[in-house]
């Protein structure tokens, strides 16, 4: 094996060989886990990223040999369960990722282990429920039902009962549901002339995501207002289901494929018609930019969607570079503490949201560190305290400048951060898309 330290080449990613029966072989998985863990043990650069690495290193240090070979294979799952697939180790820390000959892909090795666990029936009902975002959203956002659900989210006795049954921590502040779903109430405007730029298509399709559709439709409406103010014609994706990220994190790869079969035909049609496809949740954007293309590397439609997919601020700042973004900002935003979500960082697009907020006149305090929430990880009783511990440096850094606004492209992370800042926090939580709408003076 090569002993070359580090790599100067840009990271590359190998396709996920999840259709291969060997992918699910537990002996082969354990062999790869041992190989990966041994490299990580000898390096330890990622110890500050999350709890997966400290768990691994503690297991090694407390073993009889103080090496990975002294760790029981059954304890490998303790590391796997701590990983929430943020991808930061791969993209920001690890010197041994491909094309380095050691070929270390920690997140996708954890994903493989989660897939093995799921196929063996080792996934509990709670985790399956939490990953069914479309089903939960459709049920919880029914009129009348939504009022009961939202009241239950704030009821301490009910939350304690839910914790006892499902192990969803009673102190975790959860997003409410909205019966006025985005897709049902959105009024996209398609009456502007298409103005293509050198870097940007001149028309946009919105893939709203489960969260925007069921929980915070205002984010989607504000995105439509930004596009209309900049005279960019827009449409909604004709039909959409969950992007599949929650099922991917669960290891339910067959469910990911089913969701892909629902979404990709509609998205690929728009991609081939020249639309920029915008998704206002970074995890969903990453799913189409990275995870689905790696799962289906030979699917031409998936690859076409990958090329057409944009983070909203990636698109807006490219539009600005084309000289086609209006900068007639009217309302000062003051001080904004802005958190960069992990799933946006690993898209390698740069700090486009920060740039847009600064363009709008905000004084931006940018915090580029994992908040510790993940999609559902920080909701679970067994991980709640750890999620708050991981987030402590972020909470402090976000609070230090006494901001007017707390903001993150990941609305769930922003809620988690505001909770971590405590009751003394006076900042208002607003999504960056909403902040830009406010800066424009749009109603």
Q: What would your notes on this structure say?
A:
There is one protein chain. With 443 residues, the protein is an alpha/beta fold. The chain has 4 domains: 21-119, no CATH class; 125-166, no CATH class; 182-319; 328-440, Rossmann fold (3-Layer(aba) Sandwich), CATH 3.40.50. 50% of the residues lie in helices and 6% in strands. It has helices spanning 26-43, 52-61, 76-82, 88-93, 106-119, 125-130, 133-140, 145-154, 156-166, 182-185, 210-214, 217-229, 245-250, 253-272, 282-295, 300-308, 312-321, 342-345, 352-359, 381-399, 411-421, 432-440, and strands spanning 204-206, 234-236, 276-278, 309-310, 335-339, 363-367, 405-408, 428-429. The strands form 2 sheets. The protein has a 4-stranded parallel beta sheet, with helices on both faces. Strands 6-5-7-8 form a 4-stranded parallel beta sheet, sandwiched between helices. Helix 21 links the parallel strand 7 (405-408) and strand 8 (428-429). The longest helix has 20 residues, at 253-272. The termini are far apart.
Structure, briefly:
The chain has 443 residues and is α/β, with parallel strands linked by helices. It is built from 22 helices and 8 strands.
